[in-house]
């Protein structure tokens, strides 16, 4: 016979395993190990294994014949089968005369042989070593296979290479995205795959140098598809660090410390961090049959730390992530043309500025390009030394005696008789009040809306506050002065009276809107954010080149308002109400920053206009509860307030023609002055078309209306019903278009 000494053959089936097994981030739960003992006779050896199973809390079955053993195994599919080979006439697993070879045993499916030992603890220890060794290793291997299967189904493109940069594996998603077939890549070195010419020549060497040192590399990498197209990707490659000992991958051994895996999703590479630990086999008294013929891998514990995995495990999910997940799911069952179209959709969604339209080249429309560049971008080139910031003004001495609304001089009061009309002329009030229109118009509008009653503050305090705010506007600015603030306040009050707006907002929202309009440009220096950043101004440094002016307006307004009780209109309201009011004011002032223009408009359209339109199409205006739900949700109230102040802030093209022309001249003069100063100081010229010697004001107005005004006021009109504004806008656009067609650069045509 094969064995000269009595022995027991151990056959491991590995069907189920431990109650709880930790495998990297996976926690696996299974029933207790099931053991089948196949012994022809009862003796100390069979009893020893029975006792060992009971002690280890394994489930044990006993069979006396090959037929009963087979029947029992087919019923329960045991994890471990122990066969008594001492009586070969009863159980002939294999027969051979070649005692020097264990291959027949291996071919028969046996994993181990156990020399007869009457010591029951030896049986117990053997079972425990089998459980913690081969059984658990095989179980983890199946878990690893499950992960590998998941990689096959993953929509992330995955590529695995060896230490020699030979491609070992790519998944189907990689094939789909890059256009290659698996057979075209596996076995090839990375350098054999065509690279994009957009990469720097030494990029790959830089990456390899980092990987060899065990360091992470991160940067921009251009991958080249099979069709020749280049894809820009933000790449992060992390070397996988092992602790010696090879691992098996696709049947090819290579060192774990030299393997790295790159996965990219939505154009960004994410690298898993795989760690392994080596567990040496300390089993005594038995022989691993397979270890005599091949190098087996030690049991290892692998753990992946993927940034994307952590993100997807969070309970908080960003809306854009939900959208991308929905698109990805739809792609799986979509025909190829639809899937390709969805790929293009995903490309668009990957951009950070989802709501910012892309401009054409500068040659197509320099006026639009310069306007957008000046209003929506922040430059930081050729920075000069920081300049000084003007200190806040106090109330002028001749205005220190507050007057009530009834004490307004008759001439000034007469200019404000139609202040509730859209055609109200703020320039008449500016002239009558000697450039102090904000205080007088503020007194009247705030009185009409009951602001003092809401704030529980005396009228004298409100008057002092208005005087203080107006004193901190720069009268030397041609545009951003207190007349502009008064104009925005007037527009805000006009919009607040519209029925749909009143349905949306609470009294605290109305008060916040009026205050925000009053302070939204306080202490404006007459220069854009881009100018301040280029000049290295103290404000730009203070606010990190981000929403510089808008942040300053909001902060200064509260600073000077709360500094003196005589001017503190917030002194008399309850603390929580003040916090709510303050947050609303800050949010509205920050909403006037133009870099967020398209985000605010698109959110308003998609969250409010479209749902309201859908309700009207489905059931008219009968579903009042649904309409109310849309209008009064906290999120939508914020969008309404942002849209309201944005429209009020840049409503000049919707004013009557003469007012529109005056405002156009004032803003142009302010931009001319900025361009002059940029040239004097050697700063980058933010808006080159606003050169007072060459600028076409009609073209600049046409560009501004086309790019910023039309869509926004279409949306606001659909919500608030403003036909008179839209008529003015149409008339004004035709006016500027007519001047441009005559190739005139001025505000008005030459006299007849």
TrEMBL record:
Q: Which PROSITE patterns match?
A: PAS, PDEASE_I_1, PDEASE_I_2
Instruction: Provide the top EC class.
Output: hydrolase
Give residue ranges for domain PAS: 143-214
Which key words tag this protein in UniProt? Answer: cAMP, Hydrolase, Metal-binding, Phosphoprotein, Signal
Q: Which domain of life is it from?
A: Eukaryota
Report the GO molecular function annotations.
3',5'-cyclic-AMP phosphodiesterase activity; metal ion binding
- Gene3D superfamilies, per the entry: 3'5'-cyclic nucleotide phosphodiesterase, catalytic domain (1.10.1300.10), PAS domain (3.30.450.20)
- Skewed-composition ranges (Low complexity): 290-300
Record-linked SMART domains: HDc (SM00471), PAS (SM00091)
- PDEase domain location is 404-743
What interactions and quaternary structure are annotated?
Interacts with RAF1. The interaction promotes RAF1 activity.
NCBIfam families in the record = sensory_box
Per its record, how is this protein called by name?
Answer: Phosphodiesterase
Species: Labrus bergylta (ballan wrasse)
Organism phylogeny: Eukaryota, Metazoa, Chordata, Craniata, Vertebrata
